[in-house]
């Protein structure tokens, strides 16, 4: 599938200089708004978690902020504790999936060479089997 905008370009900004909260035609904005169906695992105030449509491990869940940020660096730069909350949500998923003790991987693919295909920041939470290293 294609990204909601060419990777490497900044997200649209409002006149106030903040990122738009929701971007038209963004797949994960659509899922967060309930307009696009997904298997929701956790429906939080500022974050939402849903199963990846093409799972790469027994547990493969995506955790996203409801508001639109293009990548994890933009999310970190925004501050406000939202990145912390996203990681906290990832841990909650690991607990409910029963993989917290066995371990899991949190991945933020970033940009073209990072393998990012959806331009709305998302943490992959992968587990339920031993992860290999190095990644492909
Ligand atoms: P990325 O490649 O950007 O790191 O991760 C994007 C992920 O989104 C991929 O693992 C892909 O399988 C998943 N994905 C793509 N389209 C959909 C969709 O419509 N629904 C869900 N639940 N996951 C999707
Ligand atoms: Zn979005």
Overview of the molecule:
It is a single chain. The chain has 136 residues and is of the alpha+beta class. It has one domain (27-127): HIT-like (HIT family, subunit A, 2-Layer Sandwich), CATH 3.30.428.10. The chain is 21% helix and 18% strand. It has three helices and five strands. It has a five-stranded antiparallel sheet, covered by helices on one side. A hairpin with a 3-residue loop joins strand 1 and strand 2 (47-51). The longest helix has 15 residues, at 82-96. The radius of gyration is 14 Å and the shape is globular. It starts with 26 loop residues before the first helix and ends in a 9-residue tail after the last strand. The site of zinc ion (ZN) has 6 residues, from helix 1.
Topology:
Blueprint: H1 27-32, E1 40-43, E2 47-51, E3 59-65, H2 72-78, H3 82-96, E4 104-107, E5 123-127
Antiparallel strand pairs: 1-2, 2-3, 3-5, 4-5
Bound molecules: guanosine-5'-monophosphate and zinc ion (ZN).
Guanosine-5'-monophosphate binds at residues 1, 27, 38, 50-54, 62, 109, 115-118.
Give the CATH superfamily.
HIT-like
Largest sheet: 5 strands, antiparallel
CATH topology: HIT family, subunit A
Amino-to-carboxy terminus distance: 20 Å
Task: Give the DSSP E fraction (strand runs of 2 or more residues).
Answer: 15-25%
Count of extended strands: 5
Number of domains: 1
- Average pLDDT rating: 90
SSE order in H/E notation?
HEEEHHEE
Give the structural class: alpha+beta
Task: Identify the notable features of this structure and list them briefly.
alpha+beta; 5 strands; 136 residues; 3 helices; single chain; 5-stranded antiparallel sheet; binds guanosine-5'-monophosphate; 18% strand; HIT family, subunit A; binds zinc ion
